[in-house]
Amino acid sequence: MKQHIAATLLMAAAVVTASATAQDIVRHKIPGSDFPIAQAVTIPPNATIHFISGQVPPMIDKAATPDTIAAYGDTKTQTVGVLKKIEEILKGMNLTMGDVVKMQVFLVGDPSKGGRGDVKGFMEGYTQFFGGPQPNLPARAVMTVAGLNSAGWLVEIEVVAAKK
């Protein structure tokens, strides 16, 4: 009888432990890589999911002609500006960048880079928010697009955040 009770208690403890672990947001690292994105993110059913609309860069030079890259800055500058806007939106929702689980990035080809998306500039801005002191990495996709609604925008980012 004592063995049966002990076995039952061990099984109950295992279920509780597995249940608690299963309820965490899990960020699956890319095997053998230190690249600052998650390969996948698992969100438990008890988490609240927040969809943040695509954000575009703030104007940094009001003296520049509107709808020009000079008015908004290069890809790195625009990335930092967009991520700061997202950070403020999240803060207003009692969330942080560490709660971001999915990111979609739209880069316009930069004329100064031969019309290619400036992924290096994007990464220089991105790593100021992810992969350094803030270790929670999102699953992410980066795509080059033909254009955004302003000829001066090189970056638009939308995110999904989740919190238990």
In short:
The chain is an alpha+beta fold and 164 residues long. The chain is built from 4 helices and 6 strands. Strands 3-6-4-5 form a 4-stranded mixed β-sheet. Strands 1-2 form a two-stranded antiparallel ribbon.
Q: Could you spell the SSE succession in H and E letters?
A: HEEEHHEHEE
Span from first to last CA?
40 Å
Low-confidence segments, given as residue ranges, are 6-20
Q: Which radius of gyration do the C-alpha atoms yield?
A: 21 Å
- Backbone structural class: alpha+beta
Query: What share of residues is helical?
Result: 25-40%
* Shape, principal axes of CA atoms: globular
Total helix count? 4
Largest sheet: 4 strands, mixed
Strand order of the largest sheet: 3-6-4-5
Work out the strand percent: 25-35%
Average predicted local confidence, pLDDT? 90
Give the tally of β-strands: 6
Report on the architecture of this protein:
- The protein has 164 residues and is α+β, with helices and mostly antiparallel strands.
- It contains four helices and six strands, in the order αβββααβαββ.
- Strands 3-6-4-5 form a four-stranded mixed sheet.
- α3 (75-92) runs parallel beside α4 (119-126).
- It is globular, with a radius of gyration of 21 Å.
- The two termini are 40 Å apart.
How is this fold's topology laid out?
Elements: H1 2-22, E1 26-29, E2 38-42, E3 48-55, H2 69-72, H3 75-92, E4 100-108, H4 119-126, E5 139-145, E6 155-163
